[in-house]
Design goal:
mainly beta; four-stranded antiparallel sheet; 2 helices; about 425 residues; about 5% helix
């Protein structure tokens, strides 16, 4: 059974070869000095990566040849101590010391950091169906299968129950939990949503392009659908969708999305793109990737590095600082104002606040407590266009919720931060 993305490449992209994800080399900055960019890990290039997980200090990759683990940031990879390695890996999830892997022959579980995997009996009439998606919601574990819908366990995967609502024979291409909602793509024809932990499901694809959704993420108060026609957004928890008006992503396929250090990083059909203004303005950060095929399938953050899986061309990584730093020479002047979420959040005792200006103007950035009392003025004065950042130190403040507010020309925005000691 092909995954939805494999099917999309076959029927929708018009290419004769399957795509590549991230090739990372050395390049020269505009002033002629060399700066590190993408570097290849030692993932076997001949093995296509279908899934990637970071759990504690380890990396786990699901490939056409099974599950592999790296304990040294991708420098070396090994198979588990069982015949499990011969089953194609499609999905991962972790909960504490429990690791779950969805494969072409069902669900497997490990309690020893992936050295040995045991088969999980999920109570399906065809137990060796593929498991394409795994989603964690509170204490429940949901799996999406390749022909028997969705099943759930509330006891760490010991007992399982198939969900009702007419999903028994459906193929679930992806399964995602966001807040208290579950989203699933069914039979490559529709997207559905559950607000009651999978008991009932409703259509959640009004306004979306047909047969082209790769996943759903939440950014701020907006839900974003990643599609072959770019990004779609929803302000009503996925009931209706409209195309997001973006700059820098015109005509580009949106595949995967993560948020890190106040920036959005997207894997696309044309490489890796970064946004500093909540996903409206995007910059191509793919210099060094293969110029013929560079479709980025999966993105994961581990430590100070971003890892990118390139379909058929292995696993690559790049320092996050090169992608998210406001000093990056690749970042353009934003087309609109942007106040980004502070990072880290929660924090102790200091955190970084980033913001973008489309033109030179007077900026005020202040911090308030929950009583509306101003506790700090971080910025006050004229600033040039571009992205800026400032540190907020809460060492002399009590733990609790605070708010930071930016005023620039007619633009005003407020965000919440949490100081935890």
């Amino acid at each position: 059974m092909d995954s939805q993305l494999e099917k999309a490449y076959r029927i929708g992209l018009g290419r004769t070869v399957l795509p590549v994800f991230c090739l990372l080399l050395l390049a020269s900055s505009p002033n002629g000095t060399a700066r590190a960019q993408w570097t290849r890990t030692n993932w076997p290039q001949s093995k296509v990566i279908h899934a990637l997980m970071v759990s504690e200090a380890d990396l786990y990759g699901g490939s056409t040849a099974g599950i592999m683990r790296s304990t040294d940031d991708g420098a070396s990879w090994s198979y588990p101590e069982s015949t499990f390695s011969y089953r194609r890996g499609y999905s991962f999830a972790s909960r504490g010391e429990l690791l779950f892997a969805g494969t072409t022959t069902g669900l497997y579980r490990s309690t020893n950091r992936g050295r040995v995997w045991d088969r999980v009996e999920v109570g399906l009439s065809r137990p060796e169906l593929s498991v394409y998606g795994i989603a964690l919601l509170d204490s429940a574990i949901f799996i999406g299968t390749g022909g028997q819908g969705i099943a759930v366990s509330t006891d760490a995967g010991v007992l399982w129950q198939r969900l009702p609502d007419g999903l028994d024979l459906d193929v679930v291409e992806f399964l995602t939990a966001l807040d208290s909602n579950l989203f699933a793509s069914i039979n490559s024809t529709k997207m559905i949503r559950s607000t009651d932990r999978g008991i009932t499901w409703q259509r959640s694809d009004k306004g979306l392009p047909y047969n082209s959704v790769f996943g759903v993420e939440k950014v701020g108060n907006m839900y974003l659908a990643l599609t072959m026609q770019g990004i779609y957004e929803s302000s009503d928890t996925g009931t209706t969708w409209t195309p997001r008006k973006t700059t820098g992503l015109e005509g580009i396929i949106s595949i995967c999305l993560i948020e890190s250090h106040g920036s959005l990083i997207m894997g696309t059909g044309s490489g890796v793109f970064v946004s500093r203004d909540s996903g409206y303005t995007w910059t191509n950060m793919s210099t060094g990737l293969d110029t013929i095929v560079n479709d980025v399938w999966i993105l994961r953050v581990k430590g100070d590095f971003l890892y990118a899986a390139v379909y058929g061309y292995g696993l690559w990584r790049r320092p996050l600082s090169e992608l998210t730093s406001v000093e990056s020479p690749d970042l353009p002047v934003p087309v609109r104002h942007a106040l980004l979420q502070n990072y880290p959040n929660p924090f102790n005792p200091s955190t970084t606040i980033r913001y973008g200006l489309p033109s030179r103007e007077h900026v005020t950035l202040t911090v308030f407590n929950t009583l509306g009392q101003q506790v700090s003025t971080l910025v006050q004065g004229e600033q040039d266009p571009g992205y800026h950042e400032v540190r907020f130190d809460g060492a002399n403040l009590p733990s609790g919720v605070y708010f930071y507010r930016m005023n620039a020309s007619s633009y005003t925005e407020t965000k919440k931060l949490l100081l935890v000691r």
